[in-house]
Amino acid sequence: MPWLTGEEWQAVRLSLVVAARAVAMGLPPALLVSLFLGRARVPGRGLLNVLVHLPLVLPPVVVGWLLLITFGLRGPVGHLLYAWFGIRLVFTTNGAALACAVTAFPLMVRAIRLSLEGVDPGLEDAARGLGAGALDRLLTITLPLAMPGVISGAITAYAVSLGAFGAVITFASNIPGETQTLPLAIYAALQTPGGEATAARLSMVSIGLAVLGLGLGEWAGRKLRP
Amino acid sequence: MGATKHARGDLPISLACYIAVMTYRGTDMRRRQLIAAAIVFAVPADAQAGPVVFAAASLTDALREVDRLWVARGNPALRLNFGASSTLARQMEEGAEPDVFISADERWMDRAAERNLIVPATRVSPIGNSLVLIAPADSTLRTALDRGTDLLALLGPGGRLATGDPAHVPVGRYARAALTWMGQWEALAPRLARAGNVRSALLLVERGEAPLGIVYATDAAISPAVRVVGTFPAASHPPIRYPFAVGARRDTPQARALLAFLTGPEAMEVYERLGFTRP
Q1: Which of A29, A81, A127, A200 suits a disulfide with A132, CB 3.0-4.6 Å?
Q2: Is A91 near chain B, with CB under 8 Å?
Q3: Which pLDDT tens digit goes with each residue over B184-200?
Q4: What percent of chain B has pLDDT over 70?
Q5: Beta-strand (E) ranges in chain B?
Q6: Maximum CA extent, chain B
Q7: Which of B167, B190, B94 is closest to A198 using CA atoms?
Q8: Chain A contacts of B194, Cβ < 8 Å?
């Protein structure tokens, strides 16, 4: 589209890339956590459930700040990531993706758990009776049946990641080309004198992407309902 | 947070509501207790709220001290809103009505004046600041800050220079001017970490995420987690001034009295102690 400048296109592309990476980062742990919360009978499940839902309840800036003190260069995890693998997260696209993944994590877990609870345990028992191992049952029975929830969770997470602001700007900062996703670009434009037109254009794109994402989620949810 | 006063009508009203709810026969005891508690806690305690001050983030510590002095004189506590001067000016454009606005550069105050958001007759600029290059406290970097200094090399591969966003935050604009004077702007522009205000930039250096940062001398002084690597020559950037003014829609004797206090001898003593300069 000719009415977006090169820099603005960069923000749009970056938003899509960050959201995709966020889903890729968040989905496997969300799956594991959902299975654990749904199936395991150990104490501490309640606490894990609360922790999982924290990003939903905490102010996004707090989520970003907690990420900063954990994954920053002087944080317990960030320090090791840098020392062992040379990985930096603050100021990088992957850092922005991590912030989005954490923000969207509770929603992914909820969607997947809902779907998992709908899986008939009788089917898994039957499979076990017929000799299928745990991993086999997971891959051939549980996951395929829970797929609507997994996909719906992934799409919701994608849409949420497109809009994540507080956590991203606090953790990954506002760096055009690296971490300046659409919400950050809109915010920066609003702060700059004369930037209202830019903010308006970017907002339209943002709304368009959000509508597309959510519409896709609805359609996928309906299509995959057994 | 300073003195608050209950309006005289508050207590009887809460008591009346509490009694009314507790004696109501239409629902069970637990529900009545919940509703009564909600009403008691919902009645505002702060009937006489203090004046609103929008101030540049670099004045955070100074104004909190001045607020204590203000309250000690028997006034209601100030409601302080700190942020980048650009962000605050935008909030005022969108309808926020502070009693006093304090900006970190003349340009944002000019813009507020253009849009009739302040009372021009009350505008004064009693304090200034200087610009410094900082590093985390345990860093050993040293350099002079002259026209030929190679800051890019000092930053190292992958390192970012944290400062306010040069597009709108005052400290970022002063930083841009200083870096341009040094001939380093083109090289460093893509290597900046653009913070929303000077205190966010300070945080990035404190946490070691950015090996270098550009903030005001007063911010560096107040933070034990950073050290000053060098001070930018005054000639390298426009003079740093803090204009104070009364908000246009709040031009009252109380607001003017507050402005007089904020620029008066007691407050000036606090500013100078914290490192602000007298222009």
Answers
A1: A127
A2: yes
A3: 999 999 999 999 889 99
A4: 92
A5: 52-56, 79-83, 100-102, 124-129, 131-136, 161-164, 192-195, 212-216, 226-231, 240-246
A6: 83
A7: B167
A8: 173-175, 188
Rounded-to-integer distance, Cα B267 and Cα B247, Å: 20
Which among A156, A148, A146 has a CA at the least distance from the CA of A103?
A: A156
How far from chain centre, in Å, is Cα A107?
Answer: 8
Q: For chain B, how many helices (H) and strands (E)?
A: 12, 10
| Residues B198, B84 contacting (CB under 8 angstroms) | yes
**Rounded CA Rg of chain B:** 23
Would an 8 Å CB–CB cutoff place A174 in contact with chain B? yes
Q: Is the CB of A173 less than 8 angstroms away from the CB of B195?
A: yes
Query: Phi and psi for B214 in degrees, rounded to 5?
Result: -120, 115
CA nearest neighbour of B10 among B41, B33, B56? B41
| Burial of residue A194, with CB atoms counted within 10 A of its CB: 0-12 exposed, 13-18 middle, 19 or more buried | exposed
- Minimum-distance CB partner of B207 among A72, A175, A192: A72
Chain B positions touching A173 (Cβ under 8 A) are 193-195, 204
Query: Which residue is closest to B192 within chain A, CA to CA?
Result: A175
The answer to whether the CB atoms of B204 and A192 lie below 8 A apart is: no
Report chain A (226 residues): mean pLDDT per 10 consecutive residues: 76 94 96 88 86 93 93 93 92 95 96 88 87 85 87 89 91 89 91 86 90 82 70
Q: Determine the Cα–Cα distance for residues A39 and A117; give it in Å rounded to an integer.
A: 10
The crossing angle, in degrees rounded to 10, of helices B60-72 and B253-262 is 120
Query: Which residues fall within 8 angstroms of residue A107, CB to CB, at 6 or more apart?
Result: A56, A153, A156, A157, A160
CA dist A177 and B172 (Å) reads 19
Give A67's contacts (C-beta < 8 A, 6+ positions apart): A98, A99, A102, A167, A170, A171
Q: Which of A163-177, B17-31, B248-262 has the highest mean pLDDT?
A: B248-262
**Segment holding A36, helix H or strand E:** helix A6-39
Q: Which residues pair with B192 in a beta bridge?
A: B161
Distance CA B130, CA B194 (A): 20
The C-alpha atoms of residue B222 and residue B224 are separated, in whole angstroms, by: 7
**CA-CA distance, B192 to B207, in Å (whole number)?**
16
Per the DSSP assignment, residues forming a β-bridge with B12 are none
| Residue bearing tokens 């090169």 | A6
Indicate whether this complex's ipTM tops 0.90. Answer: no
Amino acid at B270: V
Q: Where are the beta strands (DSSP E) in chain A?
A: none
pTM of the model: 0.80
